[in-house]
Amino acid sequence: MQKKYEITSLAHPQFPWLHRIRALADINEEVHKGAWGGFVEHEQNLSQEGTCWIYDQAICCEHAVVERSAVLFQESLAKGNALVTGNAVMYQTSVAEGACRIQSGEIWDRARIQGNAQVVASWKTGYAPLILADSQVYGNVCWESIGKWERSAKPECGEPDTRTVGFFRGGDSVRKVNESKKKVKQKKQPQR
Predict the structure, then answer these.
(1) Which of 15, 31, 73, 82 allows an S-S link to 96, with CB 3.0 to 4.6 Å?
(2) In what order do the strands lie in the sheet with 136-137?
(3) What is the pTM (predicted TM-score) of this model?
(4) Max Cα separation, the chain?
Protein backbone atom coordinates (compact mmCIF):
# COMPACT_ATOMS: atom_id res chain seq x y z
CA MET A 1 0.00 0.00 0.00
CA GLN A 2 1.31 3.42 -0.96
CA LYS A 3 1.34 5.91 1.91
CA LYS A 4 -0.81 9.01 1.52
CA TYR A 5 1.11 11.16 4.03
CA GLU A 6 4.38 11.34 5.92
CA ILE A 7 5.23 12.57 9.38
CA THR A 8 7.78 15.36 9.00
CA SER A 9 10.47 16.58 11.39
CA LEU A 10 8.54 19.83 12.02
CA ALA A 11 7.64 19.64 15.71
CA HIS A 12 4.71 21.38 17.34
CA PRO A 13 6.01 24.56 19.05
CA GLN A 14 4.38 23.72 22.41
CA PHE A 15 4.35 19.90 22.28
CA PRO A 16 7.61 18.75 20.65
CA TRP A 17 6.62 15.06 20.58
CA LEU A 18 3.96 15.95 17.97
CA HIS A 19 4.96 16.43 14.33
CA ARG A 20 3.31 18.02 11.32
CA ILE A 21 2.11 15.79 8.47
CA ARG A 22 2.50 16.33 4.72
CA ALA A 23 0.51 14.71 1.90
CA LEU A 24 2.44 12.33 -0.38
CA ALA A 25 -0.52 12.04 -2.77
CA ASP A 26 -3.83 13.78 -3.46
CA ILE A 27 -6.05 13.01 -0.46
CA ASN A 28 -9.33 14.75 -1.30
CA GLU A 29 -10.58 17.78 -3.27
CA GLU A 30 -8.72 20.21 -0.98
CA VAL A 31 -5.58 18.32 -0.02
CA HIS A 32 -3.13 17.70 -2.83
CA LYS A 33 0.33 16.17 -2.91
CA GLY A 34 2.74 18.30 -0.88
CA ALA A 35 0.03 19.97 1.26
CA TRP A 36 0.82 20.42 4.95
CA GLY A 37 -1.55 19.10 7.57
CA GLY A 38 -1.92 19.21 11.33
CA PHE A 39 -0.02 17.25 13.98
CA VAL A 40 0.18 13.59 15.04
CA GLU A 41 2.18 11.68 17.62
CA HIS A 42 2.64 8.56 15.47
CA GLU A 43 1.40 7.02 12.23
CA GLN A 44 -1.45 5.11 13.93
CA ASN A 45 -3.19 8.45 14.70
CA LEU A 46 -4.22 9.06 11.06
CA SER A 47 -5.22 6.26 8.72
CA GLN A 48 -3.25 5.92 5.50
CA GLU A 49 -6.53 4.88 3.82
CA GLY A 50 -9.59 6.93 2.86
CA THR A 51 -9.90 10.70 2.57
CA CYS A 52 -9.46 11.49 6.28
CA TRP A 53 -7.18 14.41 7.08
CA ILE A 54 -5.97 16.63 9.90
CA TYR A 55 -5.88 20.30 8.89
CA ASP A 56 -4.46 23.53 10.27
CA GLN A 57 -3.19 23.25 13.88
CA ALA A 58 -5.43 20.28 14.75
CA ILE A 59 -3.90 17.41 16.73
CA CYS A 60 -4.48 13.67 16.99
CA CYS A 61 -2.31 12.04 19.66
CA GLU A 62 -1.93 9.25 22.21
CA HIS A 63 -4.02 6.28 20.97
CA ALA A 64 -6.69 8.35 19.19
CA VAL A 65 -7.46 7.60 15.54
CA VAL A 66 -8.85 9.63 12.63
CA GLU A 67 -10.02 7.40 9.77
CA ARG A 68 -12.30 6.92 6.72
CA SER A 69 -13.45 10.42 5.61
CA ALA A 70 -13.37 12.14 9.02
CA VAL A 71 -11.52 15.45 9.36
CA LEU A 72 -10.14 17.70 12.10
CA PHE A 73 -9.96 21.47 11.42
CA GLN A 74 -8.47 24.51 13.19
CA GLU A 75 -7.26 23.58 16.69
CA SER A 76 -9.48 20.59 17.36
CA LEU A 77 -7.99 17.73 19.36
CA ALA A 78 -8.47 13.96 19.42
CA LYS A 79 -6.66 12.17 22.25
CA GLY A 80 -6.88 9.21 24.60
CA ASN A 81 -8.55 6.31 22.80
CA ALA A 82 -10.96 8.50 20.81
CA LEU A 83 -12.08 7.34 17.38
CA VAL A 84 -13.13 9.98 14.84
CA THR A 85 -14.47 8.08 11.86
CA GLY A 86 -17.10 7.97 9.11
CA ASN A 87 -17.86 11.49 7.94
CA ALA A 88 -17.40 13.21 11.31
CA VAL A 89 -15.98 16.75 11.35
CA MET A 90 -14.41 18.59 14.28
CA TYR A 91 -13.77 22.35 14.30
CA GLN A 92 -12.22 25.13 16.34
CA THR A 93 -11.11 23.96 19.80
CA SER A 94 -13.45 20.97 20.13
CA VAL A 95 -12.07 17.89 21.91
CA ALA A 96 -12.63 14.13 21.55
CA GLU A 97 -11.15 12.18 24.45
CA GLY A 98 -11.49 9.03 26.50
CA ALA A 99 -12.90 6.09 24.57
CA CYS A 100 -15.50 8.12 22.64
CA ARG A 101 -16.57 7.32 19.06
CA ILE A 102 -17.61 10.12 16.74
CA GLN A 103 -18.99 8.46 13.62
CA SER A 104 -20.93 11.34 12.11
CA GLY A 105 -21.96 14.93 12.74
CA GLU A 106 -20.17 18.17 13.45
CA ILE A 107 -18.47 19.12 16.70
CA TRP A 108 -17.87 22.89 17.12
CA ASP A 109 -16.51 25.57 19.39
CA ARG A 110 -15.37 24.25 22.78
CA ALA A 111 -17.54 21.11 22.75
CA ARG A 112 -16.08 18.02 24.46
CA ILE A 113 -17.02 14.47 23.59
CA GLN A 114 -15.60 12.22 26.28
CA GLY A 115 -15.78 8.98 28.21
CA ASN A 116 -17.60 6.27 26.26
CA ALA A 117 -19.79 8.75 24.37
CA GLN A 118 -20.94 7.98 20.83
CA VAL A 119 -22.09 10.47 18.19
CA VAL A 120 -23.80 8.88 15.17
CA ALA A 121 -26.26 9.79 12.41
CA SER A 122 -29.90 8.74 12.58
CA TRP A 123 -30.30 5.46 10.71
CA LYS A 124 -33.81 6.59 9.68
CA THR A 125 -33.06 9.99 8.16
CA GLY A 126 -29.31 10.22 7.71
CA TYR A 127 -29.27 13.44 9.75
CA ALA A 128 -26.40 13.82 12.20
CA PRO A 129 -26.05 15.87 15.38
CA LEU A 130 -24.52 19.31 15.45
CA ILE A 131 -22.90 19.82 18.84
CA LEU A 132 -21.99 23.39 19.71
CA ALA A 133 -20.60 25.80 22.27
CA ASP A 134 -19.48 24.51 25.67
CA SER A 135 -21.30 21.20 25.32
CA GLN A 136 -20.01 18.21 27.23
CA VAL A 137 -21.27 14.88 25.90
CA TYR A 138 -20.72 11.74 27.95
CA GLY A 139 -23.48 9.50 26.60
CA ASN A 140 -24.90 8.71 23.16
CA VAL A 141 -26.22 11.18 20.61
CA CYS A 142 -27.87 9.52 17.63
CA TRP A 143 -30.96 11.38 16.46
CA GLU A 144 -31.68 14.13 13.95
CA SER A 145 -31.31 17.02 16.33
CA ILE A 146 -29.14 19.77 17.67
CA GLY A 147 -27.82 19.52 21.15
CA LYS A 148 -26.54 22.26 23.37
CA TRP A 149 -25.73 20.50 26.60
CA GLU A 150 -24.26 21.50 29.88
CA ARG A 151 -24.06 17.78 30.67
CA SER A 152 -25.47 14.77 28.93
CA ALA A 153 -25.35 11.28 30.39
CA LYS A 154 -27.77 9.18 28.40
CA PRO A 155 -27.44 5.42 28.85
CA GLU A 156 -28.63 4.77 25.30
CA CYS A 157 -30.00 6.62 22.27
CA GLY A 158 -33.44 8.15 22.60
CA GLU A 159 -35.05 10.98 24.49
CA PRO A 160 -32.83 13.10 26.72
CA ASP A 161 -32.83 12.27 30.41
CA THR A 162 -33.43 14.71 33.25
CA ARG A 163 -29.77 15.74 33.41
CA THR A 164 -29.89 17.16 29.89
CA VAL A 165 -30.08 20.95 29.68
CA GLY A 166 -31.17 22.92 26.60
CA PHE A 167 -32.04 20.17 24.13
CA PHE A 168 -33.32 21.43 20.75
CA ARG A 169 -35.00 19.58 17.88
CA GLY A 170 -35.41 20.49 14.23
CA GLY A 171 -35.00 23.99 12.86
CA ASP A 172 -32.68 25.46 10.28
CA SER A 173 -29.50 24.20 11.90
CA VAL A 174 -30.25 20.51 11.40
CA ARG A 175 -28.57 19.50 8.15
CA LYS A 176 -27.61 16.29 6.47
CA VAL A 177 -23.90 15.76 6.94
CA ASN A 178 -23.12 15.55 3.23
CA GLU A 179 -24.87 18.88 2.53
CA SER A 180 -23.05 20.46 5.45
CA LYS A 181 -19.62 19.20 4.34
CA LYS A 182 -20.14 20.71 0.87
CA LYS A 183 -20.73 24.10 2.49
CA VAL A 184 -17.71 23.65 4.74
CA LYS A 185 -15.43 22.76 1.84
CA GLN A 186 -16.35 26.06 0.21
CA LYS A 187 -16.04 28.29 3.27
CA LYS A 188 -14.54 26.13 6.07
CA GLN A 189 -16.75 28.01 8.58
CA PRO A 190 -20.51 28.46 8.22
CA GLN A 191 -22.06 31.84 8.73
CA ARG A 192 -23.85 32.28 12.04
Answers:
(1) 82
(2) 5-11, 19-23, 36-40, 59-60, 77-78, 95-96, 112-113, 136-137
(3) 0.77
(4) 50
